Amino acid sequence: xxxxxxxxxxxxxxxxxVVVASVLSLTALALKPRQDANKLNETRLSIxxxxxxxxxxxxxxxxxxxxxxxxxxFQAVDGRVVIPVSGSGLxxxxxxxxxxxKDMDTVAGVVMDHTGETPGLGAEIATQxxxxxxxxxxxxxxxxxxxxxxRKGGATPANIDHEVDAISGxxxxxxGVTAMLKHSLQPYLPYLVSHGAAxxxxxxxxxxxxxxxxxxxxxxxxxxxx
Amino acid sequence: xxxxLRYLTGPFSKENPVIxxxxxxxxxxxxxxxxKPAVVMALSVAVVTGFSSLIMSVLRxxxxxxxxxxxxxxxxxxxxxxxxxxxxxxxxxxSKQLSVYVGLIITNCIVMGRVEAFALANKPWxxxxxxxxxxxxxxxxxxxxxxxxxxxxxxTLYGYRxxxxxxxxxxxxxxGLMLFPPMALIIVGCIIWAHRSWNKELQEK
Lengths: 226, 205
Description:
The complex is a heterodimer of chains A (226) and B (205).
Chain A: H1 6-50, H2 58-61, E1 62-66, E2 72-76, E3 81-88, E4 93-100, E5 107-114, H3 128-131, E6 140-141, E7 144-145, E8 149-151, E9 163-165, H4 171-185, H5 189-195, H6 216-222
Parallel strand pairs in A: 8-9
Antiparallel strand pairs in A: 1-2, 2-3, 3-4, 4-5, 6-7
Chain B: H1 2-9, H2 25-30, H3 35-59, H4 68-90, H5 92-98, H6 100-104, H7 109-117, H8 124-154, E1 156-157, E2 160-161, H9 165-169, H10 181-198
Antiparallel strand pairs in B: 1-2
Helix pairs in contact in B: 1-8, 3-4, 3-7, 3-8, 4-5, 4-7, 7-8, 8-10
């Protein structure tokens, strides 16, 4: 058979495209539930581990609170809250979860992850060693929101409550984390202020109204990174 | 049978795709900072080269030669997407580690090089062995390079700490340069050097 006739080439290409398209879409459809479950599971695990509560059951421990269409936070039964944060590092997106104590000021824990920061340098933001520095830091300084800053050369004693050591060799990524913590927490300030130590309002009040128990789709949507 | 075995083991040393054919260098620089992604990358590439060679070899008689490169690309891209989907569904941690590199398998010259140079002219079983052999040949170099880079650059192997903390207290420091891509090139160069002085027949006159 002459395989170089135009009609043969066109038929061959058309059949190939249809076959490949069906194989790929069938696989994607068949595996999607498993992949989504993996992603959801990871999100939930991140939220729990920022609270240092990985052995708790997510459904029982966390309630999702909708602040507005774009901003959600996750409230633990013990009154602490977890706020999703996202920003950009040196090479790509970085994201994480920041857990705050009941006073809405002290950091209870963080987890962070990234897509492509340099291993051994910027990628250190995804290590336990780096996360542990944030515990006990305060995001408010004398009533003013300052976030947590990653200071090149080490946290300064004067600002020890609001600074952690930057990663040596990972300055750009560290700056990205500082900016992420500042910008992503900004929209939550009204909530933090009204629910913070200054406010005597009982926890989990009005804001909880209407928030359905963490639905799978909702949690998924807070993950900016895809 | 003996000949088939040679297709599989040849690429491990004397016909190694990386250090003899100098293919697939680019991805070898990217994924060798740590051992774990290097190992997974090696396995994924072996699967993709093996099965793309197999499929192209089965199709070889009917492929119109004028569009054969496009057909090869479609087959390879399909294999890569399938591997990526399976990794995401069954070993999510690993797929996160590899992130963008899985997609990069498509651009790995070894895959297309073997399809074009071998699979289009040989029987399916031989092509499959040749593909798998080349995938592992590539993997061997990846793993050696990653071993050196992770040990000297981070003091760990496969994520576990090897250099004891006490060394650091006495002034030992990780070699940060090892974490950058140019060092992979230098290490691969050293491997080529050692390999050629061992195999004299590979030396150019």
